[in-house]
Amino acid sequence: MNEASKNVIADAGAYVDTASALIGLPIPEASKPIVVANLEVAMRMAALLDGFELDDREEPAPVFRP
Amino acid sequence: MTKFSTATCRDLTDDFKAGRATARRHVEASLARIAAYDTRVNAFTDVLADRALARADMLDAARSRGEALGPLAGVPFAVKNLFDAEGVPTRAGSRINVDKGLSRADATLIRKLEAAGAILIGCLNMGEYAYDFTGENAHYGPSHNPHDLARMTGGSSGGSGACVAAGMVPLALGSDTNGSIRVPSSLCGLFGLKPTFGRLSRAGTFPFVASLDHLGPMTRSVADLAVTYDCMQGRDESDPAQTPRESEPVSGLVDAGVAGLRIARAAGFFEEAADPPGRMAVERVCATLGATARVDYPEPLRARAAAFLITMAEGAALHLDTIRTRAAEYDPDVRERLMAGALLPAAWIQKAQKFRRWHAAAAARMFEDVDILIAPATPCQAPLIGQKTFMFAGAEVPVRANLGVFTQPFSFIGLPVVSAPVWLEGETMPIGVQLIAPPWREDLALRAARALEIAGLARAPVAQL
Q1: Chain A closest CA to B18's CA: distance in Å?
Q2: Where on the phi/psi map is residue B95: left (φ > 0), alpha (ψ -120 to 50), or beta?
């Protein structure tokens, strides 16, 4: 995990507050530590993927068939 | 006439067609078994006795008139309660969905099975909204593993695993987004098939993750898995995610054996992280199938990570409106995962979807040299109900998020997989082994499972209750 990712994890609680307000999702105080813990798991998963280089022209998996 | 509780679908259909038993008798035997044991097993949320008896009487009348009978004639079956069944709420393991009212029609796969002569007998307990690998449920109670009632069934198709292992029905349908057919098949000791993504219609089921949801059967024999899968194939215009593809029946192929097939075990992560029973089960399967090769499945940890992120984001997007207003009504073990999923940056998900395409291409290259890949289905045998963590690869990790660590990398790119149940000598609980085939080659995975069944290594006995 790179330095930037570590810093982001330190701010996960603040991110949860800001992002949940942005999308209008009330998060009860009792839930917040668990939401943060889940977000931190997601961040570790994202960091794993972040370390994998993909070509800009790689297509995403879902294909719309008109 | 075969004893109902241990009978396969084929046994029941043979008895019915030969006039040794009526369909009504099969339904009554199923209902009696449910009445006797489901207070302890907790597999069913809805038992549809009147519907099933009426359908059985129709089938008995059809037989007495000499009409043609389908390949599943007279076989009672049950479905995870995210399938629509007419007149029943599609709970999807929740209380909230009950407020949506009663389903007006049956899901496509129920209709297909009943068109083949099977009889829907009820709807089954599951982890709330399928976001679960344990089979526990805060609203309806946990489903209990029939082989040891103190243990988990695995999930999220927990009731599906429980009812078949308990001999209540010989066939149940489940769904599998990240492993929810294969995990309970492993923990309850059943044959489970997760077909290729896009193979079977999802119409008439409550979704979880549109990018990853699959449906499939769980049974106690490979022949039953094949025939039920065949009955459910076919184009359904009401499912836009289904791949346009002709039916490719497998029932006539499963006895072809494995001679000439290139079979290899998944090396690295899948060998190193499994616990001793999982490793031993894979060892026995490889020895039985003559598999000596090891291959590296490409980037399994990143595949799992990408599936994890897509699941969080799509699952959360589905529930965002409801979780804004009714958060307190969710299972606490599901609620906060959905809340966190709603906050994920879009770029993470797009990267995961792009990685999925890359990963499918990498797996296709691997399958140029391999017909069947072997991997453990679960990192351990059934944990105790209520158990929150287990040891995995030297670290203590949450059960709920990690029982599917070996299944997620394969469903991520929609590969067809059979989970075959293995009972190791001296063990009181089963563990499953995944037989993974290239896309659209369910027949290969089923042939390998059948070879294991013939050799006596894979078997699915009914629990002693």
Answers
A1: 47
A2: alpha
